[in-house]
Amino acid sequence: MNIIDDLILHSPALIVAIPLLGAFLTPLVSRINDKLRNIFVIFIVLFTSAIVLLLANDIYSLGGKIHTYVFGGSAAVTQGGFAIRILFEVDGLNIFMALIATILAIAGVIYSWSFMKENTGLDKYYTLYLLIIAGMFGMILTGDMFNFFVFLEITSIASCALIAFWTNKGKAIDAGFKYIVISSIGALFILFAIAILYGQYNALNMAVLADKIQFSFLDKIALAVLITGLAMKAGIVPMHMWLPDAYGRAPSSVTLILVGATQASLYGALRMIFTVYGGSLSNTLNQIGDVNIDLNLLLGIFIVALALVTIFIGVLMALKENNFKRMIAFAAVAEIGYMILAIGAALTTVFSATDTGTGVMALKGGLFHILNDALDVGLLFLVAGAIYYATKETSLNRLGGLARNMKYTTIFFLIGLLAVSGMPPMNGFASKLIIYESTYQVNPILSIIAILCSILLLAVFVKVFHSAFLGPKQSRFDEVKEVPKSMLLAMGIIACIIIFIGLFPNLVIDNIVQPAVNAITNNSNYISNVIGGI
Amino acid sequence: MSGMSRIVKTVTNVAFPIVMIYGLYVIAHGHLTPGGGFQGGAVVASGLAMLLVAYGSVWTMGKVKEKQLSVLESIGALGFISLAFLGILMVLLYSSFQGNFFNNFLINQDIIPIFNEIGRGLANINTAGVIPLMNFAVGLKVIAGLFAIVLVMAYATRLKGVKQK
Amino acid sequence: MIYNIPYIAVVALILIGLYAVIFKRNLIKIVIGITLIESGVNLFLITLAFREDSIAPIYRGSGSRIMDMSLPVPHALTLTSIVIGVAVLALMLSLIIHLYKHYNTLDASKIGREEE
Amino acid sequence: MSKRDFAAVIFFAIVAVFLVFGALLTHPFGEFNQENDPEMDQYIIDNTQNETGADNGVTAVVFDYRGFDTLGEATVLFTAVAGVIILFRRLKK
Question: Residue C95 is part of a domain; what is its CATH number?
Fold first, then answer.
């Protein structure tokens, strides 16, 4: 038997199990040598990435294929349409998110090498880092509701410990505490919703639930509780207060991976709305009195309203923020707003019969923006970390004239700045343009607000660029040198991908985003592939 | 002499072996009676925590370091995950079978004569395939893990500056 | 209706916990609130497992089933959920120890407000 | 301050209404009928001895049918230990 075929066959399990194995081995390896430990961790991450790429190649080569992996079962697993064992169900959307997570994981691990060098407790740091990566992959790839909850908890516990990594700063501990409170309540809400669904349908598998779901009143309650929990984890506005703190106080390498963890929660919301509830959302009309209310229209409008508030608050808070990393964190809140704006706009139209492609286009823009946001915001956080590393300074008021000493970092910041505010040559422009177009067809006011906020975001970052990098040379920063090579390499990887996507957006949309959109909109394919495939 | 009074220590000395034995029993019979690796591990760890309360965290930290416990926990976790990985590697053993991650590869086979019987409600230890082995791995992990948590937290909150008699 | 009393208990536990988390300022009380929510959810899972006139899903004696058995899956889910709860609790309490060392208070409104 | 409290009260009330409705609508305690027939659990009860060899159904679910969850659970504990140790580490080399 060919080893590559074996790897592809077992790849969904290996993608999660190998980082876990690495995490369990790290405390033993780090007893030998520090350098060996770093090499070991990077090797584990690269090996996992290689398997992700193999799986991605396998999925993309066959359109609409869903790779189902059964844990522990060799014989029949679903008889009469119920899944006993845990299944991993990998389709276009899963593998799309997994690719994003892969990029972030590689960049984060390489960046950590120099960035965290001067700290103690690095063996546990790398253990937790691998655990976040494993948890993220688990959340993304799983097809089982309870398994999703377990990996969500792994991710949030490990993230919490790493947010509070610099324990000599009270604010970092405070941020970690806020994060664990919000995320554990969110996770418990999710568990409650899972329990409701289990009690009704006696199933935990997503495909089986999607097949069985009746959309009764109890299911609507479960959906509301589920979305509340996931929104808490994803940092959508009423529950966004943990996000700037956590992003701002964590070490930059951790923030990078936190961006991925947040988006994994967003993926969870997408999966629940479009796949688990998708079939019944599409043909549900609710009668209240004489009026028919289209429920997914209602949900879409609600999400769009949340998105607008999220964008607004993110941009406004970013305008008046003085701490570099917190400012980027508020920009990240605004970017999350753009994603859910597209998703909400898609929800209003994508299931209706008269839709002429607006909904699909909005979904395309939203999903593409998930990829771009991870890269843009991630790059900005890495630059902020580099500046902190070089100057030990976080406040924007005290920075200035760094462009002379840190040439490469300046270039990377410029790339990130243009990308995050949606300027033409970069990837942010490509996805935001699709979002503007599709929301314009839904309602012109939405796209106007979105464009205005994007311009404000540009203004914010130009101000930062001017005050931190340009301006008069300060004598305090004479000794400042360019950051070490590994940090430059990590930033360079992300910057290269940003420019590549910016130059060839259609290539990425056709090959990677379109399968994900197809996977989302076609939930009957998902059900039949998983249940019928065994 | 740190820790609590002599009465507490004596009672602890008497109760400690009983708690240990009970916890280990719960771990070993996880596939037959209520219990398992987590529950038994928690019982044993609570026995160790009792020791910690009675003798004080400074004394306990002198006996065992959290680094050793962490390594022990890693070993337990490694045992668990490698049992799961063996499910994939069972293809090497029986060429006709398609193994999967977390496959219970010891049950329904005659090649390895260990834990391969099917339970008939008679409480035979020699049943249930990899489940007892996994119970032991998880038990080790939970003992080391919970005790490490309690030990580290107790040591961090010890009274500094107060002279311990 | 009378048969929904266990669920009402579940909701009461969750709401008491949520009340503590939202309206209390003491960090320890917030943690207690989270633990209460978690117990509520665990209780909900366990109540879903119950089937009338059933025994625990463990085969004894002859090895044949004489009665209905209660559902095993929710038991397993509850076990997982309890262990996760322990992990979260340990981490939250360690963070509180650190916060108390830094600020000498457990009042949430006085924590994390200092100028940098 | 009061605005924040007001929002909190509204959030609390909405959650309370949702949960109470959820509790009232769940199937009656301990009763199963045709509509919510627990076929998955029944399959596990019927086949646990033959497929896993374990007498204890719960352990069979924990370590065999849903073994991957248990790996996640063990990992959660591992994560918590690593997190607690990292929080109480010595800051200087």
Answer: 1.10.287.3510
Q: Does A146 reside within a domain? A: no
Tell me how crowded residue B157 is: count the other CB atoms within 10 A of its CB. Answer: 15
CA D9/CA D15 separation, integer angstroms: 10
Residue ranges of A 144-203 with Cβ closer than 8 A to chain C: 146, 150, 153, 157, 160-161, 164, 167, 170-171, 173-177, 180-181, 184-185, 188, 191-192, 195, 198-199
Residue B73 near residue A24, CB atoms below 8 Å: no
Count: domains in chain A: 1
Three-state DSSP state, A351? coil
Q: Does A142 touch chain C (CB under 8 A)?
A: no
What letter does residue B164 receive in the DSSP assignment? P
Can you say whether residue D29 is alpha, beta or left, with left for phi > 0 and alpha for psi between -120 and 50 degrees?
beta
Answer yes or no: are the C-beta atoms of A220 and A273 closer than 8 Å: no
Q: Which domain holds residue A464?
A: 292-527
Beta strands in A99-216 (DSSP E): none
**Which residue segment(s) compose the domain that C26 sits in?**
2-52+70-110
Tell me the C-alpha to C-alpha distance, in Å, between residue A195 and each of A228, A279, A302: 15, 21, 25
Q: What is d(CA C38, CA A534) in angstroms, rounded to the nearest whole number?
A: 36
Does C57 fall in a domain?
no
Of all residues in chain C, the one with the smallest CA distance to A323 is: C116
Interface contact flag, B70 D54, Cβ < 8 Å: no
Decide if B102 and D49 are in contact by the 8 Å CB cutoff: no
**CA end-to-end distance (rounded Å), chain B:** 5
- Look up the pTM and report it: 0.92
Contact A104, A123 (CB under 8 A): no
Q: Which of A225, A343, A219 is nearest to A276 (CA)?
A: A219
Residue A72 to residue B88, Cβ atoms within 8 A: no
Helix H or strand E segment including A373: helix A358-391
- Taking chain A (534 residues) in runs of 10, the rounded mean pLDDT of each run is 75 87 87 87 91 86 77 61 80 88 90 85 88 90 88 90 87 88 90 88 83 80 86 82 86 89 88 80 59 72 87 87 86 88 82 71 87 89 87 80 81 87 82 86 85 87 83 76 85 89 86 84 77 60
CA distance A109 to A103: 10
Measured between alpha carbons, how far is A201 from A415 in angstroms, rounded to an integer? 50
**55-114 of C, contacting D, C-beta below 8 A:** 56-60, 63, 65, 69, 71-73, 75-77, 79-80, 83-84, 86-88, 90-91, 94-95, 98
| Partner C contacted by D52 (CB < 8 A) | no
List of chains touching D (3+ CB pairs within 8 A): A, B, C
> Taking the C-alpha atoms of D42, D45, D46 and D51 in order, what is their torsion angle to the nearest 10 degrees?
130
